[in-house]
Amino acid sequence: MDESAKKQVPLRLSPKLYASIASWAEDDFRSVNGQIEYLLTECVKQRKKNGAYVGEEIDAPLNIDIPERTR
Questions:
Q1: Of 70 and 8, more confident
Q2: Domain with 43 in it
Q3: Which site in 20, 54, 67, 70 is 20 to 30 Å from 48, CA atoms measured?
């Protein structure tokens, strides 16, 4: 596979997680796909840096409260 080609990966996200990532992406002027790629890249960098996961609670159930945004 060409190193410059990107691999497509199907991904299923809960509606709450998707909304949270979409909001964050908008704040950072990225697409949702770009935000996910950025976050995964940062996690891999952190893992390579110290050999540990980003957080101790990485496998904890997701519990986020996303307030409705008004425009």
A1: 8
A2: 15-50
A3: 20
Residue 44: φ, ψ to 5° = -65, -40
Query: Does 41 reside within a domain?
Result: yes
DSSP 36-57: HHHHHHHHHHHHHHHSS-S-TT
Position 29 in a domain: yes
Contact 25, 37 (CB under 8 A): no
- CA separation for the pair 37, 34 (Å, rounded): 5
Give the tokens for residue 8: 């497509």
C-beta atoms surrounding 35 within 10 Å: 19
The per-residue pLDDT for range 19-54, each reduced to its tens digit, is 999 999 999 999 999 999 999 998 888 888 777 665
Asked if residue 37 is part of any domain, the answer here is yes
Contact call for residues 23 and 69 (beta carbons, < 8 A): yes
Domain total of the chain: 1
